[in-house]
Amino acid sequence: MVLWWRGLAVAMMTALLVVGCSSGGDESEPTTPSPAPSAAGPVLNGLYKVDFDVAKRTQLGAPSPRTEPMSARWVLDSHCAADNVCVATGTRIKPDGSPTNIQGTLDLIDGNWVMVIAEDSKCRAGGQPARVLGTWVLTPQPDDTLSGTWTEITTGPDCPWVVQMPVTVTKQGEIPEGVQLIDPAAVEARKPSKAQAFGGTYTQTITTQPPDGAPGVLTVEVATFCVRNTDECASTQATAIDNDPQLTPLTFTGDRWTYRWDRGEKSCGPGMPDKVRSFGFDEIVFPEPSENPIVTLSGTRRLEAGEPCPTQQTFDLEYDRAAAPPPAPAPAPGG
């Protein structure tokens, strides 16, 4: 995983595109009023502040609260075309009120403003290169605020990780003098990645190869996020095992999603003093031909251990969006 304060940095430096406020004193008036949207739709125009609910912070779905307040400021401007396709652009604001070079784009998707910003990072343990996607899903509220969730997804095989926090976005003023935004009306149209078809409620079935006993069955909520107009994507899987919430990441590359996790030390067997590090590896293949949303997917789960007692166990993975979910989540084999 990456350091927790690294997540704070991503939030404040890349994902806070939904905020903006001067560092204090009187708010500046815009030199030129922004044009009104050409079609009906929610409006983002001005200086916004994003407040993170650090008391509800989670890691991999488990509670991991913080006490230090966390917020950021952004300037935003939106445009809705005649077909009600809405886009917003934004620039992060420094504490002194001046703009940074950090910018982002939000799309209005199914009534929510959605943004994904990618950043290079490093794993806390080992220092391996890591890629982090800061994702935002923000819902306009009747009181002109926005509420939603910020999710930081660390992708790749070395330190996959997910941190989440609720956020509230509040307008604090108009666009300050001297802040130049990319014209949202000139932004390239959104082109969704094929990976974004993987989403919704799925029944996940895990069966031993060869079949041995009853399969493990779970209800899994999947959400997929992609850097705008690219195939750099990651998905999250939310479920509960023995009433413990779990949220795990899947990295999308080419034609499949992958997830590798550390299972800790495992015993080599009865009467053997040695222990070995064990890892799990899920691989889910993009179906061809595919639908939107994707209804069924298949893949494998491997559990591996190295010397002095190397072992490997393989399971079949199936995801079915149409199947009725089980009455209660059941532990999956090989977790």
TrEMBL record:
Regions of compositional bias (Pro residues) in chain numbering:
324-335
The organism sits in which domain of life? Bacteria
| Keyword terms of this UniProt record | Signal
Q: Which residues form the signal peptide?
A: 1-24
Disordered: annotated segments:
304-335
- Lineage of this protein's species? Bacteria, Bacillati, Actinomycetota, Actinomycetes, Mycobacteriales
Per its record, how is this protein called by name? Lipoprotein
